[in-house]
Amino acid sequence: NEITQTNFTIKVNVPNVNLDHGVMRLRYISQNPTENDRGMTFYQCADVKIVAASSNSNAPKTTTENKKEVEENTADNSCCAAQQFTLYGYETGSWRNPTNKVYYFDAVNKLFRIDSNSGNGVDTKDGNFQMYSNFTSGIEYYYNVNANTCDLYGLNYWSDWCYGKANQQTWMSSVRYGNQLGDVWGQEGTPFTWTNARGNCVPLSMVRPDTGEGTFFYNMREGAPKQGFFDLPAACVTKAAEFESTKAPLPPTTRKTLF
């Protein structure tokens, strides 16, 4: 059921050894929403032979190279992602089914929407939800797509997609992906770590090392989300009108992490 095809190129680090026969395996997850195999995991394997490079590429780093690496990793690499963007994510290893996510972020207008699709059910383990956070009104609208219901919550903090000092995060390490570096951050009181690309601050992942739970981000597009993406579903409009008539206190949002 292939409708579209997108070709990707990625650099990999091959061990500098002589190897007569090995196997290179590629694992990827389909994310095309128009195809039946969306969310399925595919594997491709290839037989490879490796011939070690003749140059002394594995030579120990010089004092200057080591000093440069230390300076880069100990510098303040705090940063913030773009003020407006659309970002895709894939959550796995958590208590719910593997989950496809889309983040619509608009710091200019203090709006944030998260689409979370774990299946065709109606509960948080296997359901399809849209969370509309309006930090002007202080309300999060939690829309259950499959059940066509909406619940309202009070917001607690603004998710600014900043890394480092702005969120009292501590730099933990650097990681290499392709030919670029990413910075890994921890935060006191939470088991999660966050990783962003160094230089452009593109979000890469949010991982809980003790359980293996992780959300991995991809296909970030900077710029304001399309017009209408923050319009509330009818069920949420009705619920908001009920709230305005009663002004009953709202329960706090169930969201527990920055992103």
Rounded to an integer in angstroms, the radius of gyration calculated over CA atoms is 22 Å
Strand arrangement across the biggest beta sheet: 9-8-7-6-5-4-15-14-13-12-11
Q: What is the number of strand segments?
A: 15
Gross morphology is globular
Q: What percent strand? A: 35-45%
Low-confidence stretches: none
Q: How much helical structure, as a percent, in the residues?
A: under 10%
The secondary-structure element order is EEHEEEEEEEEEEEEEH
Overall pLDDT score: 83
Q: For the terminal residues, how far apart are their CA atoms?
A: 34 Å
SS element count, helices: 2
Which class best fits the helix and strand makeup?
mainly beta
Largest sheet: 11 strands, antiparallel
Summarize the structure.
This protein is mainly beta.
What is the element layout, followed by pairings?
Blueprint lengths: L18 E11 L11 E10 L12 H12 L4 E2 L3 E9 L6 E8 L4 E7 L10 E7 L4 E6 L4 E6 L7 E2 L5 E9 L2 E8 L5 E5 L5 E6 L4 E10 L11 H13 L13
Antiparallel strand pairs: 1-2, 3-10, 4-5, 4-15, 5-6, 6-7, 7-8, 8-9, 11-12, 12-13, 13-14, 14-15
Give a structural overview:
The chain is 10% helix and 41% strand. The protein is mainly beta. It has an eleven-stranded antiparallel beta sheet, covered by helices on one side. Strand 11 and strand 12 form a beta hairpin. The mean pLDDT is 83.
Task: Note the main attributes of this structure.
globular; mainly beta; two-stranded antiparallel ribbon; 259 residues; 2 helices
